[in-house]
Amino acid sequence: AQLTARFRTENRRYTVEDVPFSVPAASETTDLSHLINKLLAAGNVDHKYVEFDFLINGQFLRMPLVTHMEMENISTEEVVEIEYVEKYMAPQPEECIFHDDWISSVEATEEWILTGSYDQTVHIWSLEGKSIMTIAAHTEVVKDVAWVKQDSLSCLLLSASMDQTVLLWEWNVEKNKAKALHCCRGHAGSVDSIAVDCTRTKFCSGSWDKMLKIWSAVPTNEEDEMEAAANRPRKKQKTEQVGLTRTPLATLSGHTEAVSAVLWSDADEICSASWDHTIKLWDAETGNLKSTLSGNKVFNSITYSPLCRRLASGSTDRHIRLWDPRSKDGSLVLLSLTSHIGWVTSVKWSPTYEHQLISGSLDNIVKLWDTRSCKAPLYDLAAHEDKVLCVDWTEAGLLLSGGADNKLYCYRYPATASDVGA
Amino acid sequence: SSPLQDIRNTVGNIPMEWYQDFPHIGYNLDGKKIYKPIRSKDELDMFLEKMENPDYWRTVQDKMTGADIKLTDEQVDLVRRLQRGQFGDVHFNPYEPAVDFFSHEVMIHPVTNRPADKRSFIPSLIEKEKVSKLVHAIKMGWIKPRKPRDDTPTYYDLWAHEDPNSILGRHKMHVPAPKMKLPGHEESYNPPPEYLLSEEEKLAWEQQDPAERKLSFVPQRFGCLRAVPAYPRFIHERFERCLDLYLCPRQRKMRVNVDPEDLIPKLPKPRDLQPFPTTLALIYRGHSSLVRCLSISPSGQWLVSGSDDGTVRFWEVCTARCMKTLPVGGVVKSIAWNPNPTICLVAICVEQSVLLVNPCLGDKLLYTATDQLLESYVAPEEERLQPVQWLVPSAEEQSRGIRLVIQHSKAVKQVTWHGKGDYLASVVSDNSNLQVLIHQSSKRWSQNPFRRSRGLVQAVLFHPTRPYFFVATQRCVRVYNLLKQELTKKLMTNCKWVSSMAIHPGGDNIICGSYDSKLAWFDLDLSTRPYQLLRHHKRALRSVAFHRHYPLFASASDDGTVIVCHGMVYNDLLQNPLLVPVKVLKGHAITLDLGVLDVLFHPTQPWVFSSGADGTVRLYT
């Protein structure tokens, strides 16, 4: 059987004539790809073979064309509009960085990778996998790390730990010295998540004690007054203190269970996910609760993409759910991506591609997703031998994942073949 | 009657009886009366003529003229042929060979040469009118074309409307006659000698009233079947049987037709009862021997497990990370985290002692406050006599977290906290009255609540809100009021050997697991017998647990499974609890014939932990 299809693409380099073609109904992506390449070669002599991926009504084609259309209830009588994009390349493994203990968190920039580990230390690595700095000041497991500012001379970074504090560090790049500037005290539980806002002057932390606290990220020389410290001898407090004490600017309370993830979705909007099965949106200026999205499982991780303005959440089941934080009815799941077989511990949107995210799970696999194909991920990155606890995606196209096998894997994601050359 | 004159009667075809009373018989052509011929012959003349005239048999009377006519030979012949049913004409042949004019063969020429009618090739107006009428009727819906054919056969129940009192109806209510007793040994022609009557018996038989006789005949013995005489009472017997059938009233026994499916109570579907744990999420590995006991911090962040390898491990719940390992130097039989969220203390049973351990996990303020609370103890001036010794461990043990040691005289097998977190009860394997001890951790003071032993104590439990104390022995559970210091209730478990016990957070329901693989649910408001006895497990139950918020309870068994049940307790006193098994959780490997040893619910989430003999702790969500 034959189908009539019209091909279209956003990419100017690969446009073909906008006329209906008759294609075999059973053709798959490779067949269609060959067809497009033939057409392109006919128009342009020095055309090189390019793999394409095909979308029908915004859904990736992953099976024979006619089966896909039957499943999606698309009429095979009419002309099918097929969009094609250059096929995304598989992420290339680059580095495997060994740690001494489980890796709880990772955040990378263009030059350095920051990881927090269960051996109570924070590590800074170069992109080549060379250990640059190990910071050990926490008395408990480091649960989250974040960059605040990077300069060529000095960087500011944050580490949150189970010892209920968040430390603000200044890392002098030239001297390779790290100095704890501030110790943020106030949480009465393990601080599980921190997030720095876009102005890089404030950050928010979420803790097991059900609270969210907003702190200033600007280093000062003054120490904040600690009102709760009155019952302790001043001297003792001084001795065990690293850095100047800092107290929160504001405390947001409203969750009834531990807060597992926070992020700034906007300049003045905080989004927090919790074990009480809700995602709450807060106004950072006033500290008011703006809206609540409720699910029915514990949330482990959330991420927000300003490109597509969607929240993605990983929870204690197999699904990654996409949410619209602006929806008023509050509990609408737009889409769920299902392929993991364990809890989804960590999710991260791509900073550059609108539709892509990665997720790490307790089933030891990191998956690269495209929201246009929600049944199957684009790629499975099965390198870890134990639970994956954290993932990150940098703007330079580096995918990072750390887990309970003490290894941090880096992948280079070139996206498309043409981008490599470009 | 002379042939010469032409006598023709003109009266026509009328009944000639009309002229019976007239002398004439009609009119001739000239209008003159035709007179009847004179019939002067009497009977004798008629007889003589019959005898003498040879043509008498062919003489007939013409009714029209009254004259006698002698039939000719041809006429006689014609009459005879007609009488035989033959054709009048001699020469007509009725059996001429038939010519098959129309045959099945298609001829090349038309049968007739008649030109076709005009109406055969123009449309019929009448038909057109009829068709248009039908079309109109169809359009108006007066007739429905192609009415769906009713395929149901057109037979009917002949006896549907039958009066049951009619004769046929009574046939339907036919009651079969009772069967006759089959002949026994005494009826045999050659009965065994014990069936034959002795002389006295025969005498007694004869003297008995025929109605009272046990046997209506005397058993007799014959050498062979040939020697058996005819049975003289045959007719009598048949008659009596008929009398029995006719006179004995018989009644139809109404059999109750109950579908066994209807007797099963309607239970809701498990998927309507969500949430409940369904899948294995995490495995906590680290113990090298079987994990006997589990406990969880009140916040749900930390899990503690005690194992036969002599260690206690503290785990982070959400990542399965072992945060701490505490070697205690002995098999850990029972472990209990203090339920008070402001105190960070774990009671651990190791051999003869109960260790109170501060795990130093969670809020720093809390665990330092707990240490301060324990340090603030001031010993009383006079030493009181106690059944146990309270020891302060060495500095090295202090640094590992052990804060107090309660040294018992015998091995301790269970420890449980009171809801407020100050009192704890321990069970000692002993058979004296010192089996159960209640300790107060803040005052370091122990007491022995029972004066005498009432059997081997299996488990003890504090009521979550009221001052009740539950003591499970092998067969029953005793409920004591701690304020009045008296026995309030004794629950009979109907089990052979109780292994574990758990109380509903509402405090009115108790479940007991037993080694004979039964789980008994007691409603304390209802009775001292189990409200329900669940037999879902195949092997002995090791542990039972209730969830603190969700209507769930779980049981762990030696068959390697954990069964999670929905146990809804209603506030309405009239409504009984609803118990529905919802999930069988498998995963633990059976080692040393032991399966799952302990089961525990997360305090806030619908998650269940199970510890098994394979040395793992598993979390199902």
From TrEMBL, chain A:
<dbReference type="GO" id="GO:0070545">
    <property type="term" value="C:PeBoW complex"/>
</dbReference>
<keyword id="KW-0690">Ribosome biogenesis</keyword>
<dbReference type="InterPro" id="IPR019775">
    <property type="entry name" value="WD40_repeat_CS"/>
</dbReference>
<feature type="repeat" description="WD">
    <location>
        <begin position="252"/>
        <end position="292"/>
    </location>
</feature>
<keyword id="KW-0698">rRNA processing</keyword>
<dbReference type="InterPro" id="IPR012972">
    <property type="entry name" value="NLE"/>
</dbReference>
<dbReference type="GO" id="GO:0000466">
    <property type="term" value="P:maturation of 5.8S rRNA from tricistronic rRNA transcript (SSU-rRNA, 5.8S rRNA, LSU-rRNA)"/>
</dbReference>
<dbReference type="GO" id="GO:0030687">
    <property type="term" value="C:preribosome, large subunit precursor"/>
</dbReference>
<feature type="repeat" description="WD">
    <location>
        <begin position="337"/>
        <end position="373"/>
    </location>
</feature>
<dbReference type="InterPro" id="IPR028599">
    <property type="entry name" value="WDR12/Ytm1"/>
</dbReference>
<dbReference type="InterPro" id="IPR001680">
    <property type="entry name" value="WD40_rpt"/>
</dbReference>
<keyword id="KW-0677">Repeat</keyword>
<feature type="repeat" description="WD">
    <location>
        <begin position="184"/>
        <end position="216"/>
    </location>
</feature>
<dbReference type="InterPro" id="IPR036322">
    <property type="entry name" value="WD40_repeat_dom_sf"/>
</dbReference>
<feature type="region of interest" description="Disordered">
    <location>
        <begin position="224"/>
        <end position="243"/>
    </location>
</feature>
<dbReference type="InterPro" id="IPR020472">
    <property type="entry name" value="WD40_PAC1"/>
</dbReference>
<keyword id="KW-0539">Nucleus</keyword>
<feature type="repeat" description="WD">
    <location>
        <begin position="135"/>
        <end position="170"/>
    </location>
</feature>
<feature type="domain" description="NLE">
    <location>
        <begin position="5"/>
        <end position="69"/>
    </location>
</feature>
<feature type="repeat" description="WD">
    <location>
        <begin position="301"/>
        <end position="324"/>
    </location>
</feature>
<dbReference type="InterPro" id="IPR015943">
    <property type="entry name" value="WD40/YVTN_repeat-like_dom_sf"/>
</dbReference>
<dbReference type="GO" id="GO:0000463">
    <property type="term" value="P:maturation of LSU-rRNA from tricistronic rRNA transcript (SSU-rRNA, 5.8S rRNA, LSU-rRNA)"/>
</dbReference>
UniProtKB/TrEMBL annotation, chain B:
<dbReference type="InterPro" id="IPR001680">
    <property type="entry name" value="WD40_rpt"/>
</dbReference>
<keyword id="KW-0853">WD repeat</keyword>
<feature type="repeat" description="WD">
    <location>
        <begin position="284"/>
        <end position="325"/>
    </location>
</feature>
<protein>
    <submittedName>
        <fullName>BOP1 protein</fullName>
    </submittedName>
</protein>
<dbReference type="InterPro" id="IPR036322">
    <property type="entry name" value="WD40_repeat_dom_sf"/>
</dbReference>
<dbReference type="Pfam" id="PF00400">
    <property type="entry name" value="WD40"/>
</dbReference>
<dbReference type="InterPro" id="IPR019775">
    <property type="entry name" value="WD40_repeat_CS"/>
</dbReference>
<dbReference type="Pfam" id="PF08145">
    <property type="entry name" value="BOP1NT"/>
</dbReference>
<comment type="function">
    <text>Component of the PeBoW complex, which is required for maturation of 28S and 5.8S ribosomal RNAs and formation of the 60S ribosome.</text>
</comment>
<feature type="domain" description="BOP1 N-terminal">
    <location>
        <begin position="19"/>
        <end position="277"/>
    </location>
</feature>
<keyword id="KW-0677">Repeat</keyword>
<keyword id="KW-0539">Nucleus</keyword>
<keyword id="KW-0698">rRNA processing</keyword>
<comment type="subunit">
    <text>Component of the PeBoW complex, composed of BOP1, PES1 and WDR12. The complex is held together by BOP1, which interacts with PES1 via its N-terminal domain and with WDR12 via a high-affinity interaction between the seven-bladed beta-propeller domains of the 2 proteins. The NOP7 complex associates with the 66S pre-ribosome. The PeBoW complex associates with DDX27, BOP1 interacts directly with DDX27.</text>
</comment>
<dbReference type="InterPro" id="IPR028598">
    <property type="entry name" value="BOP1/Erb1"/>
</dbReference>
<dbReference type="InterPro" id="IPR015943">
    <property type="entry name" value="WD40/YVTN_repeat-like_dom_sf"/>
</dbReference>
<dbReference type="GO" id="GO:0043021">
    <property type="term" value="F:ribonucleoprotein complex binding"/>
</dbReference>
<dbReference type="GO" id="GO:0070545">
    <property type="term" value="C:PeBoW complex"/>
</dbReference>
<dbReference type="GO" id="GO:0000463">
    <property type="term" value="P:maturation of LSU-rRNA from tricistronic rRNA transcript (SSU-rRNA, 5.8S rRNA, LSU-rRNA)"/>
</dbReference>
<keyword id="KW-0690">Ribosome biogenesis</keyword>
<dbReference type="InterPro" id="IPR012953">
    <property type="entry name" value="BOP1_N_dom"/>
</dbReference>
<dbReference type="GO" id="GO:0030687">
    <property type="term" value="C:preribosome, large subunit precursor"/>
</dbReference>
